[in-house]
Amino acid sequence: MAKIRTTDVGGFYHFYPKLATVVTVRAGGKRNGMAVAWGSPISFEPPIYGVSISSKRYTYRLILEAKEFVVNFLPIGARRLIAAFGRTSGREFDKFERFGIETEEPLKLGSPILKAAYAAYECELLDHRTYGDHDWFVGEVVAVHYEKDLFSPEGVLDLERVAPALYLGNDLYLEIAKKAIYRIGREEVLKP
Ligand SMILES: Cc1cc2nc3c(=O)[nH]c(=O)nc-3n(C[C@H](O)[C@H](O)[C@H](O)COP(=O)(O)O)c2cc1C
Predict the structure, then answer these.
(1) Which of 18, 27, 68, 180 sees the fewest Cβ atoms within 10 Å?
(2) Model's pTM, two decimal places?
């Protein structure tokens, strides 16, 4: 295998696969959502989650207005819904209406929860900062919705019951099948 070493970073896509989520928001009378693959947990205590959103997105200004957002975690079965949120803009139409998207009520904030999500975080906007052509939006998770039966008591997702939607870039969605799961704890690592 030939490994390329270059300072010409260019396309910058080597970090995929990433979870394909949908970030939803309601600001004033407007609701919207967009696909977001560039997201990450930031802190356990307090629980903080971040998403990277380009200022070109309609969602961008709605989040700034609402000072909140919801991160929806979806199964691969919802890939068309994710693509619908990720390949159209709320500037054109109401995506929920156009694609017949079912929602549930939030617990604490005002942004819609997707019914299809196996987990969702209601996030209160703590901070946002521009890095290059995207902004990093940081939200404190003030409420969590999740399908209890899909997680072990320790909070591990049961891949026998749900395949999370992963994104490979370039409009490609990936289903991970449970082939093997390896537990490698500290004892294992320190074994001679
Ligand atoms: C699977 C997928 C993941 C995406 N991830 C991001 C992302 O992390 N950040 C971003 O700014 N745009 C991302 N996009 C693009 C937006 O979802 C897309 O531009 C969307 O149409 C914006 O909608 P809006 O204008 O209604 O906000 C992604 C698109 C797809 C299909």
Answers:
(1) 180
(2) 0.97
